[in-house]
Amino acid sequence: LEHGPDPEHDPRWYSYILGWISHGLLDRAWHPYIIYRSGWHQPSRPETRVWRFYHPFFERLCDVLLFEEKYGKNLWEEPFQPQMPPYQEVEGLLMLPFELSLNEVYAKDDDPRLLRTRLRNTFGDAIGFFDHFNPYQWEPHGWQKFTEKGLRLIHPRILPEVDFLNTQGGPWIHPGTLVEEDSGLLELYEQALLEARSFVAAGGIAKDWKDPEGYLLDTSLNLTDDQGRRVGPELADPFDLHKVMLDQLEWLRGSLI
What is the full DSSP assignment across 39-103? Predict the structure, then answer.
């Protein structure tokens, strides 16, 4: 943040910063429920292997449902990939701030060109990710190469009548603290939104940061206790996301042939 341009004078940087902040705050709010309802793979427990792709897929599933709740449309009807900036613009905007920040926080590489190469690869991977998982850019019969590893990264189109967002307030267990909760993801989304608004001053990020280092960095953005300290997951009760993923494959076969 310190090494980037003034957000007020570069709307692209302003958008990136807002996205970075809001993503982190939403992760912190949603991850307890996401992890409880998607599980995680423990190599010592072979029966959990089927869960290994659930987390990213469940997040995309919730994206679709949240978008429908907020805007009344499916993400497939509002493809966002065309709005992504070209690779060169992303590299030009973020290369120098990232390079300066990483060299400041971590030990410098002997050859600074190595860090620049890694950053360029990262930006290219990110843009390629959005292109690759845009279903409208797939080649004919491109669905044939998709396995669960690939399916986990697409936004699902066919969903069963299941209360994935917990709008009915059913009980669930925080996988880290083991405290019973009943919040739904819509409620947690609104909480994260209020938190973001309180963090970002109405007059603009550059005018009033409200101690971003202490607010964002001295905690975990995954699973935390009531003191903000990171905790590991201990309990899960996943949805049957394996079937939901296979349903997407069947739909893709029919729609893209």
Answer: ----TT-GGGGGGTTHHHHHHHHHHHHHHHHHHSS-GGGS--GGGSPPHHHHHHHHHHHHHHHHH
DSSP letter at 106? S
Q: What is the pLDDT of residues 199-249, one digit of tens each?
A: 765 444 544 444 555 555 555 667 877 777 778 888 999 999 989 988 888
Q: Letter for the amino acid at 229?
A: R
Q: What are the residues whose beta carbons fall under 8 Å from the beta carbon of 154, sequence distance 6 or more?
A: 60, 133, 135, 248
Query: What is the C-alpha separation between 31 and 205, in angstroms, rounded?
Result: 26
> What's the burial of 115, exposed, middle or buried (CB within 10 Å: 0-12/13-18/19+)?
middle
Instruction: Tell me the pLDDT tens digit for each residue of 84-103.
Output: 667 677 778 888 888 888 88
> In Å, how far are 27, 73, 209 from 68, measured between CA atoms?
20, 5, 32
DSSP readout, 111-129?
SHHHHHHHHHHHHHHHHHH
Residue 129 in tokens: 């990710």
DSSP single-letter state for residue 180: E
Q: What would you report as the CA-atom Rg of the chain, rounded to the nearest whole angstrom? A: 20
User: At 209, phi and psi to the nearest 5?
Assistant: -85, -20
Neighbours of 146 (CB within 10 A): 19
Structure-derived torsion over alpha carbons of residues 252, 240, 62, 142, reported in degrees to the nearest 10: -20
Over residues 183-197, the pLDDT tens digits come to: 999 999 999 988 888
Tokens of 201: 């001053």
